[in-house]
Amino acid sequence: MAIVVYDIPPIPPDPEYTRYLDAGVVRLGLEYRTLDDAELDRAYADDAKSKAAIDAARPEEVDDRGVSIHVLGAEDGHEYLRFDVFEKGPHYHYIHSERVENKIVDFDTVAMGDMLPWALEQIRSNLPVMLAHAGGHALGERVDPALLASRTRELEELAREARRAQGVTD
Fold this sequence. Notes:
Blueprint: E1 3-6, E2 18-23, E3 26-36, H1 37-43, H2 48-57, E4 63-73, E5 79-86, E6 91-95, E7 102-106, H3 109-112, H4 115-133, H5 137-141, H6 145-165
Antiparallel strand pairs: 1-7, 2-3, 3-4, 4-5, 5-6, 6-7
């Protein structure tokens, strides 16, 4: 499992294409994303340091797409976690709240299959621990498991619907 740590934030969710579900102390966002070289260049065009870091680490060509699940603090709006359920390179992010640290962890589809069920299970069962790893320990302590379970079911429906709309079958 490869882990890459950047000292730059990830590309923010696109508000035009992200649907949010309030789940108490967290907000869950769902977005169908296309990530390619042009998107990376646009996102970091005004930040030479970030663009140089991305250019140094990215493969020859980036061309991927899929569902992104964003986990934000409802009060602070900080995105703590992101699950990029991409077709070619699924991965997830720990986006630290107390320092500029964006830790990207590759997901092993050979051993674990489709990332979507795994990501939803992490949100349902492991969210407090994952939030703590991203600097949101106090937030994780206040998660309402029943409300989170209900919203995760809604999130799953939205994710599957978004994938079907893009021709991805479950």
